[in-house]
Amino acid sequence: MIKKIQWTLALTTIVSLFACSDNGLDSEEALAENWPADFNTAEYAQVNPDIVNYQRINAVEEKNEQYLVALRKRYADSLMTTGADSATAAGKASALTVSFADPAEQAIFFDDSVAVKKIFTDYAFMEEKYWPGMEALKQGVVGGEGGVNLNGVAAMEYRTVFEKFHCLGNKASQDLAFLQSVKIDSTLIHQQYVLAGIYEGRAYRFCHEGEASYPKFIIDSKKELILDTTWDFKADTTKVLDSALLPSPKLVLDNGDTVDARGFEEHPEDFEGVAVTDTIKYGAPVERDSITYSDSTMTVDSLYATTKVYTPVSANARDVNAGRSNENLVWDFSADRYCKNKADGNIYIIVQ
Predict the structure, then answer these.
(1) What is the rounded distance in angstroms from the CA atom of residue 114 to the CA atom of residue 163?
(2) Which of 3, 171, 191, 205 is buried most, with the most CB atoms less than 10 Å from its CB?
(3) Do residues 152 and 142 make contact, with C-beta atoms less than 8 angstroms apart?
(4) Which domain holds residue 258?
(5) pTM score, whole prediction
């Protein structure tokens, strides 16, 4: 599952902290020198749409919390009408949870393929080529729209991308309308650059002609040898008598009945005054396979695992993890400025 944008924990944490700060706006003048002279908030938001999306996700979370509070209150009230005390009702109601993963919630959501697809591509930032189709998302069936073929499990896994953008109780068309109605705080977007984006090496604008020459990273493939040790065993099969499958002997009584010998022995009181005249013994022995393993041998296969190593082009990019080069490690890119190339979507260093 490929996303256009990687979400950054630092983004959500720092923007949240800044939004709660009483002195945030007053600090802009002191930080002014950290913004490039041609910085434009609208373009920065266009280059980094996940920053805008964070505010929409936060609005969805707030709406869902309000929904759950109201739902739990109705549930508690209904419990109290059946005789439960208020403390018991409140306790049970607090445990009530609803999520997009619930089948009933998904049945409500999938009402309009146009709205579902727009949330998939424009808000969850999924590439259009990974759109499995409305029916595949709903039913987990093989196939999809536009010639996309996915097995049922894979198609259903794509449902998880809607979780952050779904208001409980809403249809997809209602979710889309809500997402489009969220008022975006441009001040937070503007401030995010100096509070987090500059250190992450975020592009603050699109590249101008001739600027897409120095990529943010050089990506190298690295193969590592892995020894796969396998033990092979010789299996020897023999036949053994399976006593668990043997029937109990039968006893013939003088009254003409035939009973299980085990029952006759365990409950003699049921057979007072009755004598045994004959015994019907086991039939043919029941056999089963008994497998033993011997003559173990070890084989070693040479396997190679391919990993990608991300090395910053600029020597100014500081690896805060002491020399390790990897996409998922933390780097400080604040010494350089970056742009995003519209043609290939990659990030490049702005040479000044």
Answers:
(1) 18
(2) 191
(3) yes
(4) 228-298
(5) 0.62
